[in-house]
Write a structure and sequence with these properties.
Layout (H helix, E strand, L loop, with lengths): L1 E4 L9 H5 L5 E3 L5 E3 L10 H5 L5 E3 L24 H5 L16 H8 L3
Antiparallel strand pairs: 1-4, 2-3
């Protein structure tokens, strides 16, 4: 289940909002994705896999992590961001706007004024 959106890592590209099949995220007033409907998360890892900057963490649970769990602590998860992408062979996160990034949704969002 989605547990953490890292404000420090997020580039506000909205890719997670667009790829989530159950519409878990809303776009916050500051542009950051907000976990608005966590109970709708199916732990499909689509948001984590598609995040270009490894700013999301999906815990391997079918329900929310318990209070005080390390699965909700961004500092404790520092090495876990992007781990799913590495496990499935998608490589490391990408540098926003790099020539190697061909995701049209991401690159259009970086180039467009907000």
């Amino acid at each position: 289940m989605i547990e953490v959106v890292s404000a420090e890592r997020c580039v506000k590209c909205d890719v997670c909002v667009k790829v989530c099949p159950t519409d878990v995220f809303d776009r916050g007033a500051d542009g950051l994705p907000v976990i608005a409907r966590q109970s709708d998360c199916q732990s499909c890892f689509m948001c984590e896999a598609h995040c270009p900057t490894d700013a999301l963490y999906v815990a391997p649970f079918s329900g929310p992590a318990p209070d005080g769990s390390p699965h909700t602590d961004e500092a404790a998860l520092a090495d876990a961001f992007g781990e799913y992408r590495r496990i499935v062979g998608w490589g490391r996160g990408r540098t926003p706007g790099s020539r190697a990034d061909s995701n049209h949704i991401f690159t259009e969002r970086i180039r467009s004024p907000r």
